[in-house]
Every structure is written in structure tokens, then in C-alpha cells.
Amino acid sequence: MRNKMTLGIKNYKDQLYICAKCGYCRVDCPIRKIKGFETSSPRAIFLLVKHYLDKKEGLPSELVEIIYQCTTCGLCREVCPTELDIPEIIRSLRMDIVKEQGKPIKGFIKATDNVLSKGNPLGRDRDERCDWVPDDIIIDKNSPNLFYVGCMYSYWEMHSAELTVRILNKINYSFKIMEEEPCCGMLECWDGEIEVAEEIARKNFEKFKAAGISTIITSCPGCYSTLKEAYPKLIGKEFKIIVLHISELLAQLIEEKKINFERENNITLTYHDPCHLGRYHGIYEAPRKIINALPGVKFIEMENIKEESNCCGGPLRTAFLDYAQEIGKNRALEIVNSGAKYVTTICPQCSISLRQAAALNELDFKVIDLIVLVAYALNLEEAEDYL
After folding, report:
1. Fewest CB atoms within 10 A around its CB: which of 4, 187, 223, 366?
2. How far is CA 332 from CA 277, 306, 340, 359, 385, in A?
């Protein structure tokens, strides 16, 4: 099943020879920027892997670790003149590593153990997953629309999960949630454990079918990307569920004048593009359309945005927290340089990374999930605690 997911193990080897060795990918690579070593760039990884393949030798542990230090942000793909899908090659390399070694590197092993035993990579209890659900929320158990919350919003950014369902109630959009919502399997899709990812996807799909789901709405870009792109590849044509990111839904309803904002918020803010929402799926305008519709808000852009947006470092928090924090610091400095006192995004991992970067480096800005700003503009009093 592996070759259904990516370029496939046998195909990435051909891709390595297409690399022009130009070095464009190394310039903005977030991990190379902070480590300062050429060996961390995609170009060097490809050269080294090709070297060991030509010698018919296994990859040394040092190179394996470097391959897992890639954030898979996709910025390299934007600048590659030979149009190599570099993140997919990295994913294929990781799949090959797992095939040869039987497992990914240490940090990911623990995360997968948690997913399989507790339903989330954080190791939190299953019984806590729906602790964020307010008693006064209207949930339509017969609705074909599922709000898929995701692990990060369920356990870390619980206020945004709560405000999302309050927004859906406010605009009279019917939905239901899964009381025993499973993890989507994003980490396994990217750490090389593709057979585990397929097992997770198939089990989840059976649950979606049993619940009569035809549309899934999610706020997490990781869940969105996994459900929208990975599941059809892992499951096949049988997967016909429509997957929407919450920003797509809200932007569409704003355009149709079905959302009427009631309250001004006189702040100046900038927006951080999540990698798996922007570069992977081209969703740049929907969040900006929402921001520009918010009464009283002054919106200014950072220097690097949309296709050129820099990564927050979030994907490395699983196994390389120190590197993740350094990458987050670089992005945080861009926020400061924009002159905005607030930054909004619509990704729980990005929110956590940027919030921590501000705190660790004593930087003067506040991180607010876009969902909070929408809830405030809709005059939901629960949003006031998070501004």
C-alpha cells in the first residue's frame, strides 16, 4: 500500500537524480537556518542518500536523524526549479527507514504508542477528550455534518474548540461531534509508519460511515490535510466524504452574507499562514477574507506570507523541541517586525509554538486563534476571556 500514499519507495530514488543541486531549497529551509549546516538542507540530504544508495549501504543513524528533522513545511517545494515534491520524497525516505528498521526515531515511537493505546499522541486519557464540550451546546445527532475537533484542540486549545461549536450554533449550522473521536493519524502518515496510518484511516472511515457522515468540518490544518488528502489515497475511491476547513466554511458564509458581525474589536493584527493549510492546500484567502470582515480590526501583513510564509517549527515539537523553539523564535521576530501587537492563526500547533516563542523570548505580542476573533465579533461573551 505504500506506493499509494506518496511517490513510493522505488520512485523517490529516481527523483534524487533529477535534483539540479542548485541550492535554492537551502536558502529558506527553517532547520538549516538554525543549525547552520549544509547537511540539514534538502539538497545535501538528497546527495547523501544517493551516495549511500549507490554504494548499496544502509543510511547512517546521523543521516536518519537529519531526515526526521525536516519540518515538512514545503517552502523548499515552492522554490525548486525542477519541481521536485521534496516533502513527499522526505516522507518516502521515512517510509523506507521504517521498512528497514521497523520503527521511526524515538520521539515518534512514543507518540504512536499513545495514539494506539489512548487515541491521541499526547498520551492523555480518552475520557478527557470531550471535557471542553459546554452543557448548553445544541448538537444534532442526526446531522450529516461532523465537527472533527482533533487532538490538539481537544486537549490543548480547548477554548477554541468550545468557541467553534458556539459559532456553529450562533449561525444555525447543524453538526454533531463524536463522543469517542479517534486521532486522524497525521503523525503516522508523516513519520513513515504508513501501514499504521492506513489501519487508523480505515477504522476511522468505518466510524464515519456508521455515523452517516457526508461532510467533515475541522479547524486543525493537520487533521484537514490528513482527512482531505491522505484518506482518499489510503482508502481509495470509497472515501467520498467532503472535508472542509472551518475557514473555508466561514469565508463562504461571510461572502453569502449569512454571517453578520455585531461587535467591533479595535486591534491591529497580523496573520500567520499554517504550512499544511497554505502551501499544501492553497488556503490563503479564506482566513484573510474573515479577518478583513471583522469590524474594527486593522490588518497588516508580515514580510513573508502565503507561499513564502515561514514555518513556526511546530512539527518538530514531537522529537526536537529545542529546534522547534528556535524556528518559532525566527517567525516570532517577523511578527514583532510587522508592528502588530496581535497575531492570529488558525492552527493549534502554530498557536502553541508562537505563544511559547513570545514567552521564551520576552516578545511583545499576543497570539489569538482566529476562531476567538470570530466569536468575539459575533458577540459571544465566552470569547472575552481569551482576548
Report:
1. 4
2. 19, 16, 11, 10, 23
